[in-house]
Amino acid sequence: MRRVAIVDAGPLVAALDRREIHHAACVEVLRRPDLDLVIPALVVAEVAHFADARHGPVAEAAFVRGLAGLHVVAPDPDDWMQIADLVARYADLRLGATDASIAVLADRLGADLVITLDRRHFEAIRTPPGRSLALLPDPAQGRRTNEDLAAYAYVGSARSTIDRFVKPLDTGYPRPRMACQAP
User: Fold this and answer.
1) pLDDT confidence of residue 180
2) CB 9 within 8 A of CB 101
């Protein structure tokens, strides 16, 4: 049986760049055939911003193209009050609207799994009715190396559509140099 997993920005950003320390572990979990990935629209905005800032507009466009066929969900009109309530409730954590939207969406979909690197927030918060969330990737497994990932066997139809944006961006785009940086 497939399980719904809400995807946070961190794993998507890590999946975009093979030089990121969590790249391999994030790609592995995002490709799991037993998970139905749901990407909140606010997360898409964050990742698109980071893709452009770190790798330029070509990378951002590749990321956005890769979203075709993936399940991207915007907050419902009724979600905004719950998002605001969570931001206020966890003000000491500086939770933010994007992370609060993940908890609200998880509650709306009846999901209890979040793919995130942000354990500080997601281990502390609860959904609006008070449920805790399970988190992947599991830090107890340790960091996967890119060699581990290459050895991981994928079977044709079991490969996730996540490859649509991981593969085009996983080519080591040079990070754009800021105008104030030395060459």
Assistant:
1) 39
2) no
Backbone angles phi, psi at 130, to 5 degrees: 105, 10
Instruction: Choose among 41, 27, 7: nearest CA to 114.
Output: 7
The whole-angstrom distance between residue 27's C-alpha and the CA centroid of its chain comes to 10
Are 103 and 9 within 8 A, CB to CB? no
What is the rounded distance in angstroms from the CA atom of residue 160 to the CA atom of residue 36? 9
In sequence order, what are the residues at sequence separation of 6 or more whose Cβ sits closer than 8 angstroms to the Cβ of residue 152? 28
User: What ranges do the domains of the chain cover?
Assistant: 3-169
Pick the CATH number of 3-169 from 3.20.20.190, 1.20.1250.20, 3.20.20.70, 3.40.50.1010: 3.40.50.1010
Assigned token pair, 139:
């830090």
Percent with pLDDT over 70 in the chain = 76
CA atoms within 13 A on the CB side of 2: 12
pLDDT digits (tens, 9 = 90+) for 70-110: 899 999 999 999 999 999 999 999 999 999 999 999 999 99
